Every structure is written in C-alpha cells, then in structure tokens.
Amino acid sequence: MKVQHFLGGIENLGPVDVEKRVFVEPWEAQLFAVHTTMMGTGIWAWPDLRVLAESMNPLDYFKYRYYIKWLGGMSKFLISRNYISEKELDTKTSYYLENPDAPQPDTGNGDITDRVIEYFYTGANPYRDVAVNPIFKVGDTVRVKDMPPAVHTRLPGYLRNKIGIVETVYKGAYLYADNVPTDGICTPQPVYLVKFKTRDIWEDIPDKGDVLYNDCFEVYLEAI
Amino acid sequence: MSGDHDHDHDHHHHLRESESYYAARTKALESLFREKGLIGTDTVDRVINFFEHEMGPFNGAKVVAKAWTDPAFKARLLADANMAIAELGMRDGIEGENLKVVENKPGTHNVVCCTLCSCWPWPLLGLPPYWFKDPVFRARIVREPRGVLSDFGVTLPEDHKIEIWDSSAQVRYFVIPERPAGTEGWSEEKLAALVSTEAMQGLGLATA
Q: What pTM was estimated for this model as a whole?
C-alpha cells in the first residue's frame, strides 16, 4: 500500500502551512510552464505525474515542497522516455549552477506557445459519450469496495469499506486514464456523487452533523 | 567506505537539495526543450502571464459578485456552472471542464479539498496555492475541518454543519461564500474585491 493513497484522516500532523502563494521561488513558475508545455503537446498527462508522486518514498513525499517533487518526477520521466539524457541534463545543470545568469539557447519552436495557451481553454475533458447503464440510482445505499493495491488509484483510502448514499448519478461516462496502470478506471464508466456522514467514516470524532462528498467511479462501489 | 567518501556524499546530497540546484536544473530542462524544439522561446513567459492575467482568482471573484447581486444568475450557476460562466464571457477549460458550484448559507459551510492530489477549478481560480497542496492540509481537512479552519483564522458558529467536497474524479468544486452584511447596494466590482481565493474554497470568509 502507498501512504499517498491514504492521506485523508492521518492524525497528529500539526498545523497546516497556510502559504497562499502558488510559487514561492521563481524557478517553480518556470518549471510549471515546462510541465504545461508537456501537457499541451501530449508528452505527458496528469496520470503520469501522479504515478511518479505516488511511487515516491512516503517520508520524502511529506518532506519535499510540491514543485521539488515535480522537478524530480519530470526529470525522471523525460529521461526514461528518451526525450533527454541524464548526462545532458546533469551537464547543463552544472553549467547553470556555475553560470546562473548565462542566457538560454535562443532557439525553439515558436508554434508551440499558441498550442499550449489554447490547450488551457480546450482542456482534456474525461467525459465519454458512450452508452452506459449505471448500476446504481439516486438514493441507493452503497459500500465502497476495498480495492486491491494499485500503482494508481482515484479512491481515497479513508473511504474503503465505508457506507454512503448516492446523491447524483452523473450523465454518461468518464475515463480517468488509459496510459497508466490503475485499479479499474482505465475504461469509461459511470461516476457517482456519494454522500457520507463523517461520523460513519470516523466513529471517534465529535458528532457535528458534518457530511463528506466524493465522486466515485462505478468500479469502486458495491450494493449492500 | 572512507570518511572522505561519506563527506563527499553528504556534500553532494546537500547541493542537490539547494534552491540554486533546483533553479539550475529547471533552467537546464527548459534549455534542452528549446534545443530540441519542444518549446518556444516565449512559452514560459506567456504561460506565466496567462495565469497572472487570464485564468486566476479574479474570475471566480467576478462570478461570486454576480451571484450575490443577481439571484436568477445564482440559480443558473448552481444548476450548471459551465453554462452560467459562459454568460459572463468566461471560457472554461483545463481542470474545469465539469464545474460544480456550492453555496454557503447560514448553518452550512462548504470546504473543498483533494486528498489524493491537487484537483482545483483552474478556469475560476487559476492555480492552487501551496496550502491546498500541503499533505498536512489534505490529511487533516476531511477528519478535523474545524481545526484546519482555525489554522486559517476561521471560527464557525457552534451550530454550523460542514460539507466537505473531496475532489477525486471529473468534477471541480467552487464555493460561493456568504455575502457580508452591510454591503447592500455595492457594485459588483467593489463586492468582487472582498472575495479571496481561500473564501472560494471554503477556507476563508468574505468580510467587508
């Protein structure tokens, strides 16, 4: 099992870092822009990044800042897919470490910029207009299955074996990913908004009447 | 293994964890992309500029101000957020193809999180701030939302119920905060200035 799949509900972690900035170092914005270029040109997609984040040492996952983890994941991915070599990345890194103000190459593909900006508006809708016959209907009581461990999941660990009520049956079908190994969400399927009482998830918390909503892929649910 | 070797190893490790190393490595990545024709020389600047001026929390604040002043618009927004924001000339897009808006009311407070990663409604809020991506926030918000709200300086009335939205599939959630008292007759522009990014995910309140 991976701690990254089971974050929700971990106790004794201390205060939240209420940092309201998106980027805390200039290189983070630059890295983010390279990442969106990879997304917009089809080099990779979110699930590739998630698989790398979820395969990290869980203690490192807590230790390193968000974009430090991205930097490691992006480098690893680009090297493994032969977009760049480790040697050229190390060589260039050393060069810029010694010459931080040295200019970047004045070459590039000018057509890519508009493609990336347009991608922000077209997005990558996971909706699939295929005929489906949802197993559950609004008001049904469902149990979240205890799915086998997977490389990648969209099932929050704390909901396993918990019971909720179907609040919404979304129209059509959704595909999470078809390029990475998952626990059953590589085919388009119905998704349900399921409502849980938080006291049904954690019996030891004070009863304040709070509820929690989660969108569950059909493969994660069973009738009771 | 000699002591010198250990020292070298520590030194190397230390270098690889410095901000200057991360900056150099990122610059190296972009430079290699440029050399290989995988990026334009202006792409990074255009992307950063896009999230500063086109897709950011100012969009969400405009939507909230409109919802506060136009009940018919608010009803349409709650029913179909993607259709409603198009009325305002706003485009949806990445991480917002399927938006859902929920409303804070007396007695009910909504908070949004993504315990598995960092799902966030980009067309309305731009990019997620650090707190949203903090594993500690993601771990605690679902089990102890009041404790987390208190880290943000927010205390809810004792009888308020909390509705938590943990994004994990296609939908990206957005919260209309309660309109502050004493703002009757304010312009939408003036109202929009009261709405923080945090308030639009339920980790803050709008105050006048």
A: 0.95
